Amino acid sequence: MCGRQDHEKATYMIKIDSIAAPAVASALLELGAVKLNIKKPFTWASGWKSPIYCDNRVTLSSPDFRKKIKEYLTAVVRQNFPEADCIAAVATAGIPQGALVADALQLPFIYVRPKPKEHGMKNQIEGGVKKWRGVVMIEDLISTGGSSLGAAHALREAGLNVAGMAAIFTYGFPLAEENFRKENIDLVCLSDFMFLLDEVLKKGALSKEELVSVKSWRMAPDTWPR
User: Which of 14, 16, 12 is nearest to 3 (CA)?
Assistant: First the structure.
């Protein structure tokens, strides 16, 4: 695999699967998992204004594409993290994808909550913890990477070795690259914002002026629009 952010294994932190990327980006648009609206931007939980909204849960209702996502993510794990001995999903959106991948690879499956439960066993990691040394995390969407890396921290605190992470889509924020580099965790995504824009352009869904605006959002989402 190689990608637009292609680096040697020793140096890359975020890598795009260029084989899967165009098909995944196209399907996300066709299924309505990704929506674009520059005139009426979306507001994220962080308060950021965004011309794009991505809800990969929509893909679960398409049996054909759900199967393709499973196959793509499974291939990513096999090719990039051959030492994998457990699949860990980031709750909640990563859980169905992680379970599918774990089943395909016949590996143990666990998932990580954002924080420990306040009742019962007060677990943050569900599914039991053993001394796995090659835990591969599955996530559906990467923005800044904060919640995903928080889950990785919980796994490390439990004594597990995080081999890397695979996700369906990333916005490609420079901040995410910086965050993954700080935590020394490699991430492989099936598609990203730039591949998505390629598909948008093919469909003629954005004007040149709108394209410039959307690209400026990716580089500085906290101050967009200016």
Answer: 16
